[in-house]
Structure formats: C-alpha cells, structure tokens
Amino acid sequence: MQPTLADIYAAAKVIRGVADGTPLVPSPYMTDRAGADFLLKLENMQPIGAFKLRGAYNAVAAVHDASGVTCCSTGNHGRGVAFAAARRGMRAVICMSELVPQAKVDGIRALGAEVHIKGRSQDDALAESQRLVADEGLVEISPFDDPLVIAGQGTIGLEILQARPDVTTLLVPLSGGGLAAGVALAAKAINPAIRVIGISMDRGAAMHDSIRAGHPVEVEEVPSLADSLGGGIGMQNRLSFPMCRDLLDQTVLVTEDEIYHAMQVLYYEDRIVAEGACVVGLAAVLSGKVTLDGPTATIVTGRNLDMGVFTRIMTGQDVRLGDVTVKGKPYAA
Ligand SMILES: *Cc1c(COP(=O)(O)O)cnc(C)c1O
Q1: Axis-axis angle for helices 147-163, 5-15 (nearest 10)
Q2: Which CATH number does the domain 5-49+146-326 belong to among 1.20.1250.20, 3.40.50.1100, 3.40.190.10, 3.40.50.880?
Q3: Predicted pLDDT of residue 44
C-alpha cells in the first residue's frame, strides 16, 4: 500500500530527536547563479552522515518479535539500518556487493552491524539478504521500496515546506526513488503546484529509464562519482516506481564532468563536504538543464565519501572510474 501524508506525519513523530531537524541554509553562490533563492537541506549532518536514517529508523522501529533486521545496501541505507537497529537493541546484518567502497563497509561495522559481502551487483546482495530472511527469520528492510522507508524520507519534504512554504521547486537526487517518492508525496500534498524534479547521473539511471519505458528495467551498474545513486530499482518494484512515475514532474540526467564541477562548487563556495550524489541538483542548474521559477531547495543527501577521491577532485586531478576517466580541472567559479 502506498503511504499517505498521514504516514509521513506519523514518521516525523517516530524519528523525532533521532533523525530530524537538519538545517536548511541558503547558498549565496547558487542563488546568484540561478537568479532565485537556492537552499540546501543539509542531510549530510545526520548522525550517520546521510538522510537514509529517517526511513531506516521509521521502518526498524516498526519491527517487533523478529530475530533482527537485514538489508542490501550500497552503503548509506546499510548505515541507517545498522544505527537504527543498535539504537533499538536489535541484530542487523547488512548485505553488499564487492563494488561498494571499503570506507562504507568499515563505517557499517563500526556501527555494530554484521556485513555480508556477496557478488558484483546489488542483485547478488539482495539474494543474500533474502536467504537470511528465509533461513534465520530476519526482517528485510528495502532501501527504497517500503512504505515506512518512503514515509521516513518524506519527512524531509515536510521540514523544507515548514521552513519555506514559498519554495516552488525541489531538486531531488534520484536512485531507487524512496527519497523522491516520499519528498514529492509530502510536498505535493501540502502544495500541489510545487515542481519536483528527480536527478540522476547519466550512466545507469535506473528510475529515469524505467519511467521512460513504463515499467522497471535493468540497467548496467557502472562506477560513478555519484556512487550512492547506483543500482537498479528492482524488477518487482511495488511502490517507489509508480510513485516516482506519478509524482515527479521531470527526471534529468547529469554527466560525470558536471558532477565533478558541482562537487567543487559545493566545497569551495559553500564549504560543504558531500558525496557526488548530493550535487546533482546543483549540476542540473549549473549546466542549464533546469531553470528556476522561484525559491528552490535541493537535498545534500550525504557525506560518506572516499576522502582520497574527494581530495583529487578538490585539487583538480583526474579520477578513474572503472574504464572511464573523469578529466581533472582546477576549480574556477
Ligand atoms: C540513497 C541515496 C540517494 C538516493 O535515494 P533513493 O531513495 O535511492 O532514490 C541519494 N543520495 C545519497 C547520499 C543516498 O545515500
């Protein structure tokens, strides 16, 4: 069953004091460039360094009488489930593919969860998670296709519109679509005229391709500066696909070069350390792919990045991503 605005208000109560209340700050540089107020919702300041704690905590808090929880995750959802389970005194087993950066694996172990590494794709990790459900009675928490997770992420939409009811556009990083579905549901329930745009990298944009096709499609998983946006939406997707299809006004794709530059902008202009996934909203505006019609907010979704890669980008060096190289360029406004 699709969540409703009431579920998002309920989630706001559940996560209060744990995963809510992040700052919404103006970006003077982006405001100047875009010709409209440009606001940053700083989910990088969450205790786990990413917004995923909202959905994960809301979902884990609803689990009773199970031997624990499990999920498959490219990193931040795993951290969220690990943190939430620890807070609630439950066992958590996080399943990941070999493509996930070591820093994210270490981060999850440090939160007290077990990590199982299986295969080279999200689908292999998912199979391991499903085995744990069948064999050990754990409850699986989907990173995006779960009504409680979507409701939890939707609380970001509530907070933005409570702080700035005049916002006309929301730019939402888009992968499995739990974030975009929840935020769009909250925002449009409060202000039906608001425009919600989902943004992904142009290589392996599963939700964008699926909306185009009219049904969930497989995409090839390729390394990206926006690694948190990688992975499929699940061929059996029940909720986040139809919600994104029906609620998003548009989906937009940005290149690795555009992400590289936007990461420099967020750091040098706003002094914020954030993942590639966070800057796709800035990249879409800076590249002219999205034009603004009023106050606009984007979500700085997380800060759990490889600091070696981050340093290379900030010093203008090339970054190798599998078989492609993103050409380095020193920052210039
Ligand atoms: C998960 C994630 C996203 C995308 O969220 P979805 O609900 O999968 O669309 C964006 N940014 C970061 C940092 C994430 O961890």
Answers
A1: 90
A2: 3.40.50.1100
A3: 97
Nearest atom in ligand 1 to 50's CA: 13
Best mutation site among 94, 301, 310 for ligand 1 pocket (most ligand atoms within 8 Å of CB): 301
More confident call, 232 vs 185: 185
C-alpha 179 to ligand 1 mean position (Å): 7
**DSSP character at residue 122:** H
Helix, strand or coil for residue 22?
Answer: coil
What's the 175 CA to ligand 1 centre distance in angstroms? 6
In this structure, whether the domain defined by 53-140 belongs to CATH 3.60.15.10 is answered with no
Evaluate whether 243 touches 184 at the Cβ level (below 8 Å): yes
Reported as a single tens digit per residue, the pLDDT across 93-106 is 999 888 877 877 88
The pTM of the full predicted model, rounded to 2 decimals, is 0.95
CA distance 314 to 328: 9
Q: How many C-beta neighbours within 10 Å does residue 288 have?
A: 7
* Locus of tokens 């990249």: 283
CA 173 to centroid of ligand 1, rounded, Å: 7
The whole-number average pLDDT for the span 146-156 is: 98
Listed by start position, the domains of the chain span 5-49+146-326, 53-140
Query: Which residues are bridge partners to 93 per DSSP?
Result: 70, 114
Chain position carrying tokens 């040098």: 268
User: Ligand 1 mean position to 233 CA, how many Å?
Assistant: 12
- Would 5-49+146-326 and 53-140 be classified into the same CATH topology? yes
* Ligand 1 atom at shortest distance from the alpha carbon of 144: 7
Counting from 1 in the atom list of ligand 1, the atom nearest the Cα of 231 is: 8
Q: Specify burial of residue 95 (Cβ count, 10 A radius: 0-12, 13-18, 19+).
A: buried
